[in-house]
Fold:
Amino acid sequence: MAKIAVVGGGLSGLSFAWRLKKFKPDWEITIFEKDKRVGGKAWTIQEEGFKWERGVNGVLTNKPATLNLSVELGIEVYKSNDNARKRFVVKNGKLVKLPEKPQEFLMSGLLSPLGKLRVFLELLTPKKANDSDESLKDFAIRRLGIEAFENLIDPMATGIYAGDPEKLSLKSCFPRINELEMQYGGLIRAMLSLQQKARKEGKKGPGAGPGGHLVSFNGGMEELVTSLTNDLKDNIVTGAEVSKIYKKDNLWEIILKDNKKIEATHVVLSSPLPQCAQMISDIIPEIKEIASNIPYPPVAVVALGIKKEQLKDKINGFGFLCPNKEKRNILGTLWDSSVFPNRAPEGYALMRSLVGGMRMPELARLNEDKLTQTVIDEIKDIMDVDISPDFIRTYLWEQAIPQYNVGHADLMKKLDAIMDKNRGLYFRCNWVGGISLNDCINNSMELARQLTIL
Ligand SMILES: Cc1cc2nc3c(=O)[nH]c(=O)nc-3n(C[C@H](O)[C@H](O)[C@H](O)COP(=O)(O)OP(=O)(O)OC[C@H]3O[C@@H](n4cnc5c(N)ncnc54)[C@H](O)[C@@H]3O)c2cc1C
Structure:
């Protein structure tokens, strides 16, 4: 009988084990999680009437993996309201709304007339000669010009990856955008073709913002964790840190920190890459090269509960991002209770700011008082409000988000070669195949399907 060991109980590991258990209820499946709780970066805290996320805020429904899983689990999603479409960036120290529709782009104060003209010239920009890897910055400047890069693309890299657009790979971070250029010859051409196709099919075409609807759960992302955990009660061991993994004949030997040894026919590594590398580098030294090329910057999350009257109606929207050239001390702020009203008690608003990332890793590690003061000062200045929060919580992710830099696709080929050489060893975590929760769940579900036909 197959004996499956899953190392790491984040949503990648949990969703993999859950799906495999549905397919193969008689297989022995065990999740080893180093912490006392499972869920990894999906972690909602409920305190004093606030529901604040330490990590994942929600998912977009344009990729349906999380939505489909929630339907199967029988838990209802909590849809964001229309404010989720109103997104802002900081420009010259002030908030500027991003266009929701392509037509609004012309009227938007985001770019100068010349900057807008340069964006339209994208239509005449030739397609890249080959499909080589390119940084997000090089791509954006080549196709859209420097202004669009600085005000639009750079904050996008911050919002999703807390990353450095000079290093992030377009192909690995935003594969769809790369495909659109390759397939249609450019982004405007792609948008026009897709809109025409959608019209013919009586559907709505692509807009200017991210596609899909932002959703979470009534009790925050923790609800998804709890629901999966309920079905996996007998399969989870918490406080079980895996320190090493070895091969023993046709089996895998997993060694826990307390020296306990477990044998398995298959091992699925669902932990961050630095930890995976530590576990297997004795037997697979090639993993060290991959690990040294995927940085994990720290990110601190600062949640503030503020009386609504102090905000003077200034939080109607998803939140704002800070382009690098604005030189702010925060990456951006999400106005959680504006899009998910149940995140704050009556009369209060909840917002969360992100600090650190590749740009300013040292700021994420400020002590709690300095970190909080930094965030409050930035909010006061950017939003032009005088706030004194009644609720303050912080959390530091020392290894927050793996960076898919230029060359990432080649690293993933090397990872595939490792899996080919080592039968029964798999990697499923956010450093492989997409960092969004939708990608993580989709990739885990897919592996569970593959294993059932072995
Ligand atoms: C601040 C923040 C906000 C985010 N917001 C969003 C968002 O809104 N939407 C979105 O789609 N994505 C978001 N993400 C990304 C998203 O969190 C992740 O991609 C996803 O949750 C990762 O899940 P995972 O299971 O792959 O990894 P993780 O959640 O990192 O889980 C890995 C697990 O492995 C365990 N582990 C580590 N070492 C060992 C060991 N030696 N032995 C046993 N167990 C071990 C860890 O304790 C952890 O539980 C966010 C990330 C961060 C940091």
Q: What stands out?
A: The two ends are 12 Å apart (CA to CA). The chain has a mean pLDDT of 95. The longest helix spans residues 146-161.
